[in-house]
Amino acid sequence: MSGTSADAIDAVLVRVDRHHCHLEARHSLPLDDALHDTILALNDSGADEIDRAGALHVQLGERFADAALTLLEHSGLRARDIVAIGSHGQTLRHRPATGFSLQVGSADVIASRTGITTISDFRNRDIALGGQGAPLVPRFHQAMLAQGGERRVVLNLGGMANVTLLDGEQLVAGFDTGPGNVLLDAWCRQHTGARFDHDGAWSRQGQCLPALLERLLGEPYLQRPHPKSTGRELFRMDWLARQLQGHEAPEDVQATLAQFTARTVADAINPFSPATVLVCGGGVFNTHLLSLLTRLLPGTRITSTGEAGIDPMAVEACAFAWLAWAHLNRVPGNAPQVTGARRDAVLGACYPA
């Protein structure tokens, strides 16, 4: 899969059943600046967008196939050894209020290139049932990371931040809290040329601007009750520009954006009073962001999903492998208490090899 950050394709090889997901190998294929920018440009309407999206659909299908084939080669396996590929694709538009979510990365290309049955289009069945179509990983979190007798939160710090609330083995809720790294990355690239703020080093150089932080926190999405989901359609650079007065030092804006992510995450988690927060996604390596969260979640143990046995950079990809397994075994992959769908549903569409 390739997430909101659109920085790499993550491919994993897993042995999976209802309650076990053993990661056997992992491969990450970086997306170059040109492809990254092509993806981001299609998050907005523009000239010739259907043709551009169609070309990207095929191009990403080829890249996803490349990632899968490289992973097989490194693992010494052949296509006949693999039951299926689960491909989330790359989201271009997520519009549950309109009734659709659009991911590109042709499953026909993947299945044809690899010779492996491919399961894709995981979000739209849930949306057709009145749900948000996101987040879809909480069922996987419940199956793999729930711990009897303990309140846990699984926190994904990807482009967007989302949480799964687990009370023992019960899945209570899950939703997008707001931006994870998406604004931090975009502001960093605009002012430094770097794709991301390594370890939050640039954020540390600035000072949080209280007035700006309060304006950011005034976003109505943050006060909405869950079920809810969001993405680049809301939290983007023109949204940020409307909050700025024009005289702020870039490093102070970066520091404020780090505090904004930490506050929105903590505000979502604190009412649940978990004993443990398990963190995954690229933000797990931002020690500055994690230090802010630690201060805002006193008495809560914050650690990586690695402690629970799943590589924090592989959790999302493993989740879509599990959803492919669930599709083939007719196991519901959504959770109505998370997405707001009218009922449980088997997710995905099958593209035979």
Question: What features would you describe in this structure?
Answer:
- The chain folds into two domains: 8-133 and 324-331 and 340-351, ATPase, nucleotide binding domain (Nucleotidyltransferase, domain 5, 2-Layer Sandwich), CATH 3.30.420; 138-308, ATPase, nucleotide binding domain (Nucleotidyltransferase, domain 5), CATH 3.30.420.
- The chain is built from 13 helices and twelve strands.
- It has helices at residues 33-41, 49-75, 107-114, 124-128, 138-145, 182-192, 201-205, 210-217, 237-243, 250-269, 287-296, 315-328, 336-339; strands at residues 8-16, 21-30, 85-86, 90-95, 100-104, 118-120, 151-157, 160-167, 170-179, 276-280, 301-304, 349-351.
- It has a five-stranded mixed β-sheet with strand order 9-8-7-10-11, sandwiched between helices.
- It is globular.
- The two termini are 19 Å apart.
- The relative contact order is 0.17.
- The model has no long low-confidence stretch (mean pLDDT 96).
- Belongs to the anhydro-N-acetylmuramic acid kinase family.
- One of its GO terms (molecular function) is phosphotransferase activity, alcohol group as acceptor.
- Keywords: ATP-binding, Carbohydrate metabolism, Kinase, Nucleotide-binding, Transferase.
